[in-house]
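Format notes (please read before filing issues)

Several people have asked whether sequences and structure tokens are stored in separate files. They are not. Every record keeps both together, in the order shown below: the sequence lines, then the token lines. Line labels are part of the format and must not be stripped during preprocessing.
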Amino acid sequence: MSIIIPSTTKSAGIIIPAPIPAAGGGLSYSSIAMRTIDPTTMTLVDPSSLIKTTTIASGVTTMTFNALAVGSQDYTLTGATHTFPRYYMDLQADDGDGTFTTLTTDDYAVVYFRMSTFSADFQTKAFVAAAIDPTNNASASMQGYGSFLYKTATTPGAGVWDQSSTLQLANAATDSMVGTLILTPQSASLLTTTSLRADDTRINIHHYVLSDSTAAATDWKLMIGAATRINSETIVDGEQVAAKFEYQAFKLSI
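Then the structure lines:
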């Protein structure tokens, strides 16, 4: 009897273990690891030049900010205009054999999000999402759908984000979150976020049943970033937001 130890593969913006062959020569989709997102390999969109530096260590991303003297709804997830900083790359499905396929709006797919090891010096919503056009500041054109961790003045929480609206709940026990996004041809269909305690037991679930249409034959993008939680929030030079951002995605044949 032999034991196969998988190697590690790095693909644009992610670090993943190689797939483990299943008995009989197939590929196992049991206990698939999440993929850690590395923003230092992604494209930054930062309309207001808020990012001073971004680093990643042991899978945890730390964004250090320049000062924001005057807050506005444009820096939140709920404005018609989005000027918060974000990183993006192609949203890629795991083919199960060490290769990846960029998802398009013509695909059926399931996308999983996870965030943990979260800390913030100001009131923020740090997010991981799928988007149509992260370079567009108009929320209706960006079409971002994702999950976030956030912090009030004193209490953390988690929620869901649909273009320019959010649902969330603050709870002192919030340690991490896991989200799910269901994609169908030319539509984002269902979005959920489950907030978790340190022992991974559930605190709460938020969801959106989506009715948003997308253009055909358009590549989906993976996007992470940090927005302010409230319109009036300001940022002191050098303040930071840190989190481990992860995702996994699978394309379905239906």
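For reference, the curators noted about this record: Residues 21 and 27 are 5 Å apart (CA to CA). The chain has one domain: 36-252.
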